[in-house]
Design goal:
Layout lengths: L7 E5 L3 H11 L5 E5 L2 H8 L6 E5 L7 H10 L8 E5 L5 H9 L2 E6 L4 H48 L3 E5 L5 E4 L1 H7 L3 H4 L10 H16 L4 E8 L5 E12 L5 E10 L1 H57 L4 H33 L7 E4 H18 L3 E6 L5 E4 L1 H17 L6 E9 L2 E8 L33 H11 L3 E5 L7 E8 L16 H8 L27
Parallel strand pairs: 1-2, 1-3, 3-4, 4-5, 12-14
Antiparallel strand pairs: 6-7, 6-10, 8-9, 9-10, 11-13, 14-15, 15-17, 16-17
Length: 566
């Protein structure tokens, strides 16, 4: 179980009432809030404790926040500790730049918004916890490796220093002599081991194979080497390595065979332990990789939610404080509405993934004309394509292709693929949509002339939270969820989806295959027998309101942004 530890948060302000306010806001986070009334007191706190984040007031008598931050950064132990500057005055760009140059991660104006401050500090608390956990696991792994090396050395010394068992046989392979070490290993008396008696102590599961191999090598006068188990009279299992060679007289006449029996039980146990440790190390590395990927996703999520929020708050503040002409006001309201739709779409994607992870995504199945679904999706994204002067060409071979599915969810699949193609296709590019019958299936293929997919990322393009570029400064926005949602919805419809790309700059193609409904009369009245399995798979999922959301036409920040950058 992961050990619990307190996370320290340093609050620095020369006004006690400000420290009390910060303490009231941050106390629900459960961290250890350490208060300092001056820069000097803050530096003394840093001598004895590590902090997840420092909230530092800029205006303080004596040593101000900038000077304090400079001294904090000179100490190796606190060189990378996140600092959030707090100020009660609107600061100039030069002061803000100075704060960020000292390593500040943010700049907040008083009075503070409690929710914003809490969310920012909680991010650094979680980051600190994950960092400490990685360090703990690293120490644990080093201890395990040291223990393994010690175990291997111990077994090596036992093998090197202990005498091995020795035996002699006649030309027919019957034992004529055993030494005490062999008798101890195989738990045999001298008389029990003679003749073919030693073969009776071999583990029943290995005996027939060993007997056949042993006498084959004896008749053919060849060297013998094999590893197998002996079972003692008390039932103990001992692994051994048995070797033998023909023994010739000075005249070249075969006199029999000489062999050794080495107890390798310890080595076998060490190999099993090593395999187990290697397996645990691999699992730990996978867990660490998953944590890093989720951390990147959280950073991107914060950026994607904050960007439209900043725009909305900015225009709202301007509309409240200034009077604009009708055209500017309309543009402001349109910007606020567009960004609000963008945030709503991001939240819907997150809700969909939450349902997928919990296995609660439900389909409302019925016979539908898939051609109509594709046409509606094309109509909804065509303005986006025209805005980038992208040539969107559709080739829908048949007027009616019937499938059993959820029309809302299948339209969501097509939207995601089309908006994904539009986002990653440059201006004046090309996008193709082809829908054909392919045996007992229908095949939807969306191709583009966009930026393509890196070969090393192609196998991971449908994984949740995976993005080729997970930084918040990447050129394309998005959360890395859309294509994961596409794959899950397609598989719920008993279909498949795959991505193809020749590499960067070579465009990409996404192909969806869904089973067709059999052609028969009256199939619109009820689901045909061939879709019973699909209906059963859907109906056993718990209903959730967001699984029935009617998705609006995607905006440039909506569902499809999940290939190279999304």
């Amino acid at each position: 179980m992961q050990p619990e530890f307190n996370v320290n948060i340093l609050l620095v302000d020369d006004y006690p009432e400000n420290l009390l306010a910060l303490e009231a806001i941050l106390d629900p986070l459960g961290g250890n809030l350490v208060k300092a009334h001056s820069g000097e007191e803050a530096l003394r706190c840093l001598l004895h404790q590590d902090f997840a984040v420092i909230l530092l007031d800029v205006q303080m008598p004596g040593m101000d926040g900038f000077e304090t931050a400079t001294l904090i950064r000179t100490r190796e132990r606190s060189r990378h500790t996140p600092i959030i500057f707090l100020t009660a005055f609107n600061t100039s760009d030069n002061l803000v730049f100075r704060g960020y140059s000292l390593g500040a991660v943010d700049y907040l104006l008083k009075p503070l918004e409690a929710d914003i401050l809490t969310s920012k500090v909680s991010v650094f608390i979680e980051l600190f916890k994950k960092t400490e956990e990685v360090k703990r696991q690293s120490r644990q792994l080093a201890a395990i490796n040291a223990e393994l090396r010690e175990s291997e050395e111990r077994f090596r010394l036992l093998s090197a220093c202990s005498p091995v068992g020795i035996f002699l046989t006649d030309v027919n392979g019957s034992c004529t002599y055993t030494n005490p070490r062999l008798q101890a290993i195989c738990d045999l008396t001298l008389s029990d081991g003679l003749g073919d008696g030693w073969l009776q102590s071999i583990h029943p599961e290995d005996r027939q194979r060993v007997v056949n191999d042993w006498f084959t090598h004896t008749r053919e006068v060849r060297e013998y080497s094999d590893e197998f188990r002996f079972q003692t009279r008390s039932g103990e299992i001992r692994w051994t390595h048995v070797r033998s060679s023909p023994m010739f007289s000075s005249t070249g006449e075969l006199m029999g065979h000489v062999g050794t029996v080495e107890d390798i039980t310890g080595r076998k146990h060490a190999e099993a332990a090593r395999a187990q440790i290697i397996h645990e190390q691999a699992a730990r590395q996978q867990a660490e990789a998953a944590n890093r990927m989720k951390d990147e996703f959280l950073a991107v999520l914060s950026h994607e939610l904050r960007t439209p929020l900043n725009s909305m708050m900015g225009w709202a503040r301007l509309l409240r404080t200034k009077k604009f002409d009708e055209e500017t006001t309309a543009r402001a309201l349109e910007t606020i509405e567009r960004n609000a739709r963008s945030q709503a779409q991001l939240i819907e994607d997150i809700l969909d993934v939450s349902l997928i992870v919990r296995g609660r995504l439900r389909l409302n199945l019925c016979p539908i004309n898939f051609v109509s679904v594709v046409e509606q999706a094309i109509d909804s994204v065509r303005p986006l394509a025209e805005a980038k002067t992208i040539h969107l060409k559709a080739n829908l071979a048949d007027s009616a292709i019937s499938v059993c599915g959820d029309p809302n969810r299948l339209q969501q699949v097509v939207w995601n693929l089309l908006t994904n193609a539009i986002k990653f296709t440059p201006e004046q590019g090309r996008i193709g949509v082809e829908l054909i019958r392919h045996g007992a299936q229908t095949q939807l293929r969306v191709t583009d002339s966009g930026i393509g997919i890196k070969p090393d990322f192609l196998p991971h393009v449908f994984e949740r939270f995976r993005q080729a570029d997970g930084t918040t400064t990447r050129p394309h926005s998005g959360l890395g969820l859309g294509l994961a949602i596409v794959r899950h919805l397609v598989e719920l419809h008993d279909g498949t989806v795959q991505a193809e790309s020749e590499g960067e700059g070579q465009g990409a193609a996404f192909t969806v295959q869904l089973p067709l409904l059999p052609s028969s009369e009256g199939q619109q009245d009820e689901l045909p027998n061939s879709t019973n399995n699909l209906a059963a798979k859907s109906s056993d999922k718990s209903l959730h309101p967001s699984s029935l959301i009617s998705h609006p036409s995607p905006s440039p920040l909506s569902q499809g942004h999940y290939r190279i950058g999304g």
